[in-house]
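Usage

Read records sequentially. Each one opens with the input sequence:
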Amino acid sequence: RHKSLVDEQVLQLQHEKADLLKRLEEDQEDLSGLMEKHKALIAQSSSDISQIRELQAELEEVKKERQSLQEKLQQSVNRVQFLQGSMVERSIVGRQEARVTDLENRLEY
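and closes with the structure output:
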């Protein structure tokens, strides 16, 4: 009877051992899958960081270009204002010259 009880305990322990080994194998597979995902995320993160750096550099270039274009626009606006002012002055001078010519003509008659 005692041997049968021991045999039964041995069988139960062997069964528990098999279950534990199966669980260990499953846990190792899960860990392996998680490690693969972790590696993929690290690689993606590295790629994202690289892309962010490239975009930051591109943004800086665009900002510089925008500043340059704003400066050129301001120069053009100033030039147009100057030319418009010059045209007004020319127009006034032209009218004055026409008056002078008219007065000269009147004096000749």
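Summary fields computed downstream for this record:
- The CA atoms of residues 83 and 89 lie 10 Å apart.
- The chain has a mean pLDDT of 91.
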